[in-house]
Specification:
Shape: globular
Strand order of the largest sheet: 1-2-3-7-6-5-4
Helix content: 25-40%
Number of helices: 8
Radius of gyration: 23 Å
Structural class: alpha+beta
Oligomer: single chain
Strand content: 15-25%
Number of strands: 7
Largest sheet: 7 strands, antiparallel
Distance between the termini: 85 Å
């Protein structure tokens, strides 16, 4: 049996150890192959996600959240059926969180979340809310700048099995945040996200989420 000299064995072990170390440090490849990235592209639109990552200046991404519309819808429906007035404590569900890295730091973050809103549809006509919210149609309201880099959409969705007041007093609320995103791109992400989840909700009368950004009046 052939046996390597001791010196050669040490060199071989050191070489293998360095190879393992370098492969473990190669975060670019691991992040790029994350299955959640593909799921986020399905949930928010593949071109939208690609464009959002480009605005951050980073090419390497890490993805978190629950980027599955059916899972998000199931959780929301379960919560709506258990809701009773005047409960305003609602769970926020992160659909996708994409952290784009530039060098050793985060170049930007895109976050898409959904929850049942603490705002009722009746509150949309108040002087305070009417200054920032636009009514798109009978069941959808939009706030394009609800905070730094954030756009928000509220949609009426009557969940079968929930109490009678739920459709108007407990609407869906979708948020997309990303300080590197422009208003148009935030809307593309937001509207795609809302449509994906609503399609899985079985609303008695599904809200119509427009593709184009509603014009300011």
């Amino acid at each position: 049996m052939f046996v390597l000299p001791k010196t050669n064995r040490l060199i071989l072990v050191a070489t293998l150890a360095i190879g393992v170390f370098l492969s473990g440090c190669s975060g670019d490849e691991e992040r790029a192959e994350s299955p959640k990235l593909g799921q986020c592209e399905t949930l928010l639109g593949d071109e939208n996600v690609e464009a959002a990552v480009k605005t951050t200046g980073g090419s390497d991404v890490e993805v978190g959240g629950t980027p599955q519309a059916d899972v998000l819808a199931e959780r929301l429906v379960r919560e709506a059926k258990q809701w009773e007035e005047p409960d305003l404590q609602h769970t926020s569900y992160t659909g996708c969180r994409v952290d784009a890295f530039e060098g050793d730091g985060i170049g930007g973050t895109v976050d898409a979340s959904v929850r049942w809103s603490a705002l009722s549809l009746g509150m949309m006509d108040s002087p305070k809310n009417s200054r920032t919210w636009r009514q798109v149609n009978e069941s959808v309201y939009v706030e394009t700048e609800s905070g730094p880099g954030r756009s928000r959409l509220i949609a009426k969705c009557a969940v079968p099995g929930a109490i009678d007041s739920q459709p108007s007093d407990l609407p869906l609320q979708f948020d997309v945040t990303g300080v590197t995103l422009g208003t148009e791109l935030r809307w593309e992400l937001l509207s795609a996200f809302a449509r994906s989840v609503v399609e899985e909700m079985d609303c008695e009368k599904p809200p119509v989420i427009p593709s184009a950004l509603p014009e300011a009046e």
